[in-house]
Design brief:
Layout: H1 3-14, H2 25-37, E1 56-65, E2 71-82, E3 88-89, E4 92-95, H3 100-116, E5 122-129, H4 137-150, E6 160-161, H5 170-184, H6 208-224, E7 232-236, H7 240-251, E8 255-261, E9 264-267, H8 274-284, E10 294-296, E11 308-311, E12 330-332, H9 341-349, E13 353-355, H10 357-360, H11 363-377, H12 383-408, H13 412-431
Parallel strand pairs: 3-5, 3-6, 4-5, 7-8, 7-11, 11-12, 12-13
Antiparallel strand pairs: 1-2, 2-5, 8-9, 9-10
Helix pairs in contact: 1-2, 2-3, 2-13, 3-13, 4-5, 6-7, 6-11, 6-12, 7-8, 11-12, 12-13
């Protein structure tokens, strides 16, 4: 039995009773990552079960009246994985495939991510199983407000702070903030981040995750001797994260050769105009039909000749079925959990450097932290100031992770988990158990 199979079996046995043991899902992936880091935790390993059990899980029914007068019910979640280092922090996603296993894993990765960049948050995540494209704006607002009310007992500016994620945006955050404020009787801008600027949002927040992806990518490229000038970049997902990262790499002299999203896959070996592609996506809802490239098969995207691959869509996109065909020297995870543990091993054996999500896409939560701080002080910073602070934090966090990886001869993912898990468990140990 391989190490991967042994880890998967142990993970299956460790699943909580409320999950189907035959469908390990994203939570199982996270548990395998914790198992891999446990040997490096020293005396803190006695607390490791803390990382394997979410502190709090809330599953709610979200009933709303539809435009035609019928009543529809949707299932919603809010999971607080760990609060040892501060209030919960994590986005809310609206997607038809949202599951409890997924939200649990995303909340745990938020714990790791926040600790890796050393912002004073714990990890949390939320979601509703719904296809928002099938709802009118009025139905979407009623869904958001009802969900916010249902999870209201858990959230708050010093308890648990939400943010945009898949299919949610500044408008959704505005409705959440207003609903919470109305229910508590006072305006509470700090209950969410990713808000419009007029409601206490932060400059630089929209591009923060993509800018963080670009920042750690440039730092890693220097260390492995990969010149960004002329590097060929492929991006999966061309929204705020992938679009921003792709544009910044092009502005730094790289070539954007391939892009894939839910509408299709496009390719141009001579490079694409990233800014023009972003505008095309805004106008047409996706990359399909972009005149500066040719369409290719979805599966062919993973075989494109490139130096840097940025998966910035959903989890589990790089797996055992396509990892062997990836030709990039470096993978920068813009999405949460885009690479399965088995694919991680394949890429490692191929000599591909993987910059894990828990450090690579932490730019978003870093600027969310800036927004939260600004809301508390009612004093707001310039965009240049925010970007400079973001770049500094990301560079310092990546440097620390790189050093741990070199010292322990482990992957950057395991190194990030070592840094983050030690910080979380140090806090757990220092606080002790109450009562």
């Amino acid at each position: 039995m391989s190490v991967y199979e042994q880890s998967a079996l142990a993970t299956k046995h460790a699943l909580p009773s409320y999950l189907n043991a035959d469908e390990i899902g994203p939570w199982g992936t996270y548990l395998q990552q914790v198992d891999r880091v446990t040997p490096y935790l020293g005396s803190l390993a006695r607390w490791v079960e803390t990382l394997k059990r979410p502190k709090r899980i809330l599953v709610v029914d979200v009933p709303i009246e539809m435009d035609d007068g019928t009543i529809a019910h949707f299932e919603g979640y809010r999971v607080q994985h760990n609060l040892s280092r501060g209030p919960g922090k994590g986005g809310v996603r609206f997607h038809q495939d949202v599951t409890l296993s997924e939200v649990m894993a995303l909340s745990a990765w938020m714990s790791i991510k926040n600790a890796a960049v050393n912002v004073p948050y714990g990890g949390a995540k939320g979601g509703i199983r719904v296809d928002p494209r099938k709802l009118s704006k009025g139905e979407l607002e009623r869904l958001t407000r009802r969900y916010t009310s249902e999870i209201g007992l858990l959230i708050g500016p010093t308890k648990d702070i939400s943010a945009p994620d898949v299919n949610t945006n500044a408008q959704i955050m505005s409705w959440m903030m207003d609903t919470y404020s109305m229910n508590t009787g006072a305006t509470a801008t700090g209950v969410v981040t990713g808000k419009p600027i007029d409601l206490g949002g932060s400059l630089g927040r929209v591009e923060a995750t993509g800018r963080g992806v670009f920042t750690v990518g440039v730092e890693a490229a220097k260390l492995i001797g990969l010149p960004v000038q002329g590097a060929r970049v492929a991006v999966q997902g061309f929204g705020n994260v992938g679009g921003t990262a792709g544009r910044l790499f092009v502005e730094a002299g790289a070539q954007l050769v391939a892009v894939q999203d839910h509408t299709g896959s496009i390719y141009n070996p001579l490079g694409m105009d990233a800014a023009a592609l972003q505008e095309h996506v805004r106008e047409h809802g996706g990359v399909k039909g972009f005149p500066g490239a040719e369409a290719i098969d979805t599966d062919a995207f993973w075989s494109v000749d490139c130096d840097i691959l940025i998966p910035a869509a959903l989890e589990g996109q790089i797996n055992k079925d396509n990892a062997e065909r990836i030709k990039a020297r470096m993978v920068i995870e813009g999405a949460n959990g885009p690479t399965t543990p088995e694919a991680d091993d394949i890429l490692h054996d191929k000599g591909v450097l993987v910059l894990p999500d828990v450090i690579a896409n932490a730019g978003g939560v870093t600027v969310s932290y800036f927004e939260w701080v600004q809301d508390f002080s009612s004093f707001f910073w310039s965009e240049d100031e925010i970007n400079a602070r973001l770049v500094r934090i990301m560079q310092e966090a990546f440097a620390a992770v790189w050093q741990v990886a070199q010292d322990n001869k482990v992957s950057l993912r395991t190194a990030t988990f070592i840094v983050a898990c030690k910080r979380i468990l140090h806090a757990r140990e220092a606080r002790g158990l109450y009562p």
